[in-house]
From TrEMBL:
<feature type="domain" description="FAD-binding PCMH-type">
    <location>
        <begin position="45"/>
        <end position="231"/>
    </location>
</feature>
<dbReference type="InterPro" id="IPR036318">
    <property type="entry name" value="FAD-bd_PCMH-like_sf"/>
</dbReference>
<dbReference type="GO" id="GO:0016020">
    <property type="term" value="C:membrane"/>
</dbReference>
<keyword id="KW-0472">Membrane</keyword>
<dbReference type="InterPro" id="IPR006094">
    <property type="entry name" value="Oxid_FAD_bind_N"/>
</dbReference>
<dbReference type="InterPro" id="IPR016169">
    <property type="entry name" value="FAD-bd_PCMH_sub2"/>
</dbReference>
<dbReference type="GO" id="GO:0008202">
    <property type="term" value="P:steroid metabolic process"/>
</dbReference>
<dbReference type="InterPro" id="IPR016166">
    <property type="entry name" value="FAD-bd_PCMH"/>
</dbReference>
<protein>
    <recommendedName>
        <fullName>Delta(24)-sterol reductase</fullName>
        <ecNumber>1.3.1.72</ecNumber>
    </recommendedName>
</protein>
<dbReference type="GO" id="GO:0071949">
    <property type="term" value="F:FAD binding"/>
</dbReference>
<dbReference type="InterPro" id="IPR040165">
    <property type="entry name" value="Diminuto-like"/>
</dbReference>
<keyword id="KW-0812">Transmembrane</keyword>
<dbReference type="GO" id="GO:0050614">
    <property type="term" value="F:Delta24-sterol reductase activity"/>
</dbReference>
<dbReference type="GO" id="GO:0005737">
    <property type="term" value="C:cytoplasm"/>
</dbReference>
<keyword id="KW-1133">Transmembrane helix</keyword>
<feature type="transmembrane region" description="Helical">
    <location>
        <begin position="21"/>
        <end position="45"/>
    </location>
</feature>
<keyword id="KW-0560">Oxidoreductase</keyword>
Length: 567
């Protein structure tokens, strides 16, 4: 067997859950989609109502809501009330984790009112947003002004708070970094109820650098000031097919945006947007985009494709046509391009509704798409949830750019998941060591895509049912995730915490650096009030003993030995 051949696996005996999953589309069609559409519409009306309010009114409401949060925190009795978390129901989160920490004793703080765009400051080029503002909402406000967040995550439902406290990326991240790298200031309520504004150069600069990836375990985020950039009305998108083995596909992807002469910061050589989709072990399509004016888009001979219409082919399938017809260029309205993966949830929609990509369904019912991820989770039950953890993969692997080929070969060998999404991002060298950080000495290697201030990484997005599952073979989902995590640790990679994790506490702190995070936990009183990051992220229900131990806040040294072997 060659290195790229997947191992032979025995056939798996079907159980009742398999049949339920196969016919789950009935519940989705008749229950989830109608409710989702209603919720989307009501949310839209609420967003419009917020936009009609004056800045002064929104700011006044914000200040009043912050006072409520402070008052609620001060009502907590540390000896009996449990650790602090938000009042959102466990199934509302977009991520795939079970949010098991909310099934144990805890103290809830309601942040549901924090969903307003507080200000668009065109002089400072800053958008000030509350944490529950989502990407669809903010792009609807900014794009008509020919402005946008520097990094606009593709799915409409992703929120500012989730993208900061967790993880956020887009096709522009090769220029601007992750979503959190574009934040100018955070407004945080600390454990004792103190409201602070943290920036990269004020007295709370340590907190500013520790907030990303902290999952709300340092304080409660109540607003953020985020960088805006000027944009144009259209995205000129070039689709270029690449054929070869996985290493050759990886190199084609790298060459699509990273000049071989190392001139990575030259806007003339580097596109505004980048993504690549690997459709199988020998075929991929690289997409590069540049902003274009409406005058350019409407020139004779140019093709405009409004991908946002409900009846249009799903974006990943449309891009796949480049494998047959070759390289082509088209112009997409900018906001529609930003949210190109929303209707089909990348390609997860194909598993949820196997026929939803067909023309008849798109034309008749495509306007109902997508189903809300939160409702899909709310209607799946414990058995279905556990089934998906074992038989389905939703993972992002953040790896150094030069290791993308190795990562693709690993995924093929161990999981056989296709399509695979590739999206590059800068990982900046900062004055302090944050939870995720570039490889030491990367700037001396002068690798393709790197600069003196940032190492180029790539999100290898692995979302779908593995090949063995589709073939009815035995597949150990938990074991595969453990191996994925070990591979990431060995290759200086990182796993976003929205995903299901099998990491032990020791290996968790080998993947992430605990130094600054633990320092801020102690300095700002989070220990014993907010959950620790590992406690919040780890798989499985929390016992009462675990809750009590977390409340007692034994300040143990975090596992941060980078040179220890993987268990």
């Amino acid at each position: 067997m060659s290195d790229l051949e997947a191992p032979l696996r025995p056939k798996r005996k079907k159980i009742w859950v398999d049949y339920f999953v196969n016919f789950r589309w009935i519940i989705v069609i008749f229950l989830v989609l109608p409710i989702s559409f209603t919720l989307y519409f009501l949310t839209y009306l609420g967003d419009l109502r917020s936009e009609w309010k004056s800045f002064k009114t929104r700011q006044k409401e914000h200040d009043e809501n912050v006072k409520k949060v402070v008052k609620r925190l001060k009502q907590r009795n540390p000896s009996k009330d449990g650790l602090v978390c938000t009042a959102r129901k466990p199934w509302i989160a977009v991520g795939m984790r079970n949010v098991d920490y909310k099934r144990a004793r805890h103290f809830e703080v309601d942040l549901s009112a924090f969903r307003n765009v507080l200000e668009i400051d065109q002089e400072r080029m800053i958008a000030r947003c509350e944490p529950l503002v989502n990407m669809g909402q903010i792009s609807r406000v900014t794009v008509p002004l020919n402005l946008a967040l520097a990094v606009v995550a593709e799915l409409d439902d992703l929120t500012v708070g989730g993208l900061i406290n967790g993880y956020g990326i887009e096709g522009s991240s090769h220029k601007y970094g992750l979503f959190s790298d574009t934040v100018v200031a955070y407004e945080i309520v600390l454990a004792d109820g103190t409201l602070v504004r943290a920036t990269r150069d004020n007295e709370y600069s340590d907190l500013f650098h520790a907030i990303p990836w902290s999952q709300g375990t340092l304080g409660l985020l109540v607003s953020a000031e985020i960088k805006l950039i000027p944009i144009k009305e259209y995205m000129k998108l070039t689709y270029e097919p690449v054929v070869g083995n996985l290493k050759e596909l990886a190199q084609g992807y790298i060459d699509s945006f990273a000049p071989r002469d190392g001139d990575q910061d030259n806007d003339d050589k580097v596109p505004d947007f980048v993504e690549t989709m690997i459709y199988n072990p020998t075929e991929a399509v690289c997409m590069t985009g540049r902003y274009a004016s409406k005058e350019e888009a409407k020139l004779k001979g140019n093709k405009i494709n409004s991908v946002g219409w409900w009846f249009k082919p799903w974006f990943y399938q449309h891009a796949q046509t480049a494998l047959k017809k070759g390289k082509f260029v088209e112009y997409i309205p900018t906001r529609e391009y930003y949210h190109r993966h929303t209707r089909c949830l990348y390609w997860e929609g194909k598993l949820i509704l196997p026929f939803a990509d067909q023309f008849w369904f798109r034309y008749l019912f495509g306007w109902l798409m997508p189903p809300k991820v939160s409702l899909l989770k709310a209607t799946q039950g414990e058995a279905i949830r556990n089934y998906y953890h074992e038989m389905h993969v939703i993972q992002d692997m953040l790896v150094p750019l030069y290791k993308v080929g190795d990562a693709l070969e690993w995924v093929h060998r161990e999981m056989e998941v296709y399509p695979i999404w590739l999206c590059p991002h800068k990982l900046f060298k900062l004055p302090v060591k944050t939870m995720i950080y570039p490889e030491p000495g990367f700037e001396l290697q002068r690798r393709q895509g790197d600069t003196q201030t940032a190492q180029m990484y790539t999100d290898v997005g692995v979302y779908y049912a593995p090949g063995p599952v589709l073939r009815g073979e035995v597949f150990d989902g938990a074991g595969a995730v453990r191996e994925l995590e070990n591979w990431l640790i060995e290759n200086h990679g990182f796993q976003p915490q929205y995903a299901v994790s099998e990491l032990t506490e020791k290996n968790f702190w080998r993947m992430f650096d605990a130094g600054l995070y633990e320092q801020c936990r102690k300095k700002y009183g989070a220990v014993g009030t907010f959950m620790s990051l590992y406690y919040k992220s780890k798989k499985g229900r929390k016992t009462e003993k675990e809750v009590q131990e977390a409340e007692q806040a034994h300040l143990e040294t975090a596992y941060a030995e980078v040179d220890q072997p993987v268990d």
